[in-house]
Amino acid sequence: MTSEVAESAEAVGVAPAADAGFLQRYGATIEYILIPGAALLGALAVFGVFVALYGKNPLDLYFYMYYGAFGTWFSWQNTLTRAAPLILTALCTALPAQLGMVIIGGEGALLIGALSATAAALALQGASPIIVQIAMVIAGVAGGGLWITLSGSLRQYRGVNETISSLLLVYIALAILNHLVEGAMRDPASLNKPSTREIGAVNMIGTIPGTDVHWGLAFGLAAAVAAYVLIYHTTFGFAARVAGGNIRAAKIVGLSVGRLILAICFLAGGCAGLAGMIEVAAVQGRTNANLAAGYGFTGILVAFLARQNPLAIIPVAILLGGISASGGLLQRRLGLPDASVMVLQGIIFVFVLASDALYGRIGFLKGKS
Amino acid sequence: MADPSIGLWTVPLAVFGGAIRVSTPFLFVSLGECITERSGRINLGLEGTLVMGAMSAYGISYLSGSPWLGVLAAGITGALFGALHAGICSLPRVNDIAVGIALMLLGTGLAFFLGKPLIEPTAPRLPAIDFGWWSDVPQVRAALRINVLFLIGVAIAPLLYWAFRTTRWGLLIRTAGESSDAARAMGHSVLLIRLRATMVGGFLAGIGGSFLSLFYPGSWNEGLSSGQGITAVALVIFARWDPMLCLWASLAFGGAAALGPALQSVGVTSGYHLFNAAPYILTLAIMIITCSPKRTLTGAPAELSITR
User: Fold this and answer.
1) Is residue A214 over pLDDT 60?
2) Would you place residue A145 in the very low, low, confident or very high pLDDT band (cuts 50, 70, 90)?
3) A31-362 adopts what CATH topology?
4) Which residue has the higher pLDDT, A3 or B137?
5) Interchain CB distance below 8 Å, A175 and B277
6) Which residues pair with B147 in a beta bridge?
7) Is the pLDDT of residue B225 over 90?
8) Could you give the ipTM of this predicted complex?
9) Which residues of A touch B286 (CB under 8 A)?
10) DSSP string, A56-81
């Protein structure tokens, strides 16, 4: 999958190299595909060496990774199911990035979103399912949104660094979740794994017809497209990008930077909160500690790999969803520890960041003859 | 658990003992981060370094039978991670905060991967010095069983304070942190100074990790560190990049972190998770109180991206 992306990009980039106008127009776009693609391949190669040192055949590794991620219809469905929350948690990092903020607390917003959505569903037991589902969406978005807005307002009004505050809020969110799940919201019937009561089978959002992929994927795709339109095709998004580029200039032209920060943070957290709502309403059916599965943290990587572009997040989320979907197969067939997916993600992250140094330095892409 | 003869005194005593035991990783990570940040760079990856240090210390201690070799291995692992961070950051247009996040993920993943076979076996642990020999109360004795690493950490704090103020190295690190142009004009390589500062910072953070696996809690598992590294990074900001304040702040945080288990030991179990989150809530509260949007923090290195 990854090599195909990189190869096709190369084919596009090399074939019309003589046409300088083409490169001037699309050189930057090609760069945005070529460089992360190359970083991804480099990371896969290093991971292969790592696995070889561990005593496993790297070719087996690549085969099982492909097979477990995209090899069969079953694995495709598994991949897409995992991609849905990743798209949303990646937006939680990518939207504030337009303002130059580094928010890494998507996991916390996801947990709070899940908790609020569950609370809404439990409070509305007996209402018609569509009402319950709408209430869950609203509660999830509001819960997650307010959680990240907290980081944003601390940054705006108190000058607290948003990266650190959002990460601290992840641990606080997890503590709140555990506290409620083992206390006030606990289902007395859940003995081994403290959980809330079930939201009820009728209230689950179900799967897309003909597949085992739940509707959360549609939510994710819609959110990504909406975020793209918002950032690149509205005055609001333009204002956000101006403020992200030069905050002093933005203030001079009269933009209300504070309001921008709060609004963007609310939308970002709302996306992650929606991911939490989806995990409850489409997968778990209740809230418990299982929800802290790391989607929030992988989402950060997705956002950076997609260079904070909401549309690019979609394919990248599918790719990383695939990597995590193949984790089970790597454990069963190759006997690799479950943390191998984390190692690969870490290596990819390092390569992608290091590759930032390459932009604008690839000679033949500059459109000069 | 509660000894009736001392009753509720168990709680402050356990908090005191916990402050000493729990604060050691905070202390090492924050002192290490203090050096790195004074040189003008922030390493958020120390969370990963801490876990990696804990794993390698446990592994080497198990294989060699010597916990002190484990501590050394943890330090070296930490220094290597520091070198990786500094190496990537020295490339043009690379954001040090993002690299830190990446190394947090990589360090944790690698430690879980390589540490899988270490969950079962028991490695030799670091010895404790018994300062409570004069007392008959078991809780007092438990609270005063102090590890040598804690004493080393306490000694490093004033040493660093002195080194920053008076030595050539301290001046160079501060110059790189305040104005890279000035350091360059003096004929020094800023990248090299920051590389060394980040490696020393990683070395100390790795040792902080070895304390986790070799003394308290004293075993290797995947839930060993939950945000101590990142809390310590925030703590440096609160401590205004002053090593002595890092020491006091670490003790306060250790005490806060020990509150949950201490209350549980006397039978207060409700709100256990919330008390466990006390260090994070405290960090956030302190940052809210001490930061200001109007001015940069006093004592902040001017080159630091996180305070700009």
Assistant:
1) yes
2) very high
3) ABC transporter involved in vitamin B12 uptake, BtuC (1.10.3470)
4) B137
5) yes
6) B128
7) no
8) 0.90
9) none
10) S-HHHHHHHHHIIIIISHHHHHHHHH
DSSP state of B116: G
A206: left (phi over 0), alpha (psi -120 to 50) or beta: left
A160 to chain B, closest Cα gap in Å: 6
Domain residue limits, chain A = 31-362
Q: Which tokens belong to B78?
A: 């930490």
Is the peptide bond prior to B279 cis by the omega test (within 30 degrees of 0)?
A: no
**pLDDT above 80: residue B235:** yes
Q: From CA A181, how far away is CA A183, in angstroms rounded?
A: 6
- For A69-91, what is the mean pLDDT? 95
- Closest residue in B to A341 (Cα–Cα): B109
B165 touches chain A (CB under 8 A): no
**CA B274 to CA B260: how far, in whole Å?**
8
Contact A330, A336 (CB under 8 A): yes
- Do A171 and B273 make contact, defined as CB atoms within 8 angstroms? no
Give residue-wise pLDDT tens across range B255-293: 888 887 778 777 777 778 888 888 889 889 988 888 877
Q: Per-residue pLDDT for B308 more than 60? A: no
The mean pLDDT of A69-86, rounded to a whole number, is 95
Strand partners for B129:
B146
Structure-token pair, residue A128: 């018609």
Rounded to whole angstroms, the Cα distance separating A264 from B238 reads 27
A93, A356, A361, best to mutate vs chain B, most B CBs in 10 Å: A356
Q: What is the 3-state secondary structure (H, E, C) of B50-92?
A: HHHHHHHHHHHHHHHCCHHHHHHHHHHHHHHHHHHHHHHHCCC
CA B80, B225, B30, B295 torsion-angle sign: positive
| B 31-90 residues inside an 8 A Cβ radius of A | 44, 48, 84, 88
| A13 has a pLDDT exceeding 60 | no
User: Quick check: A308 pLDDT over 90?
Assistant: yes
Distance of alpha carbon B16 from alpha carbon B136, whole angstroms: 17
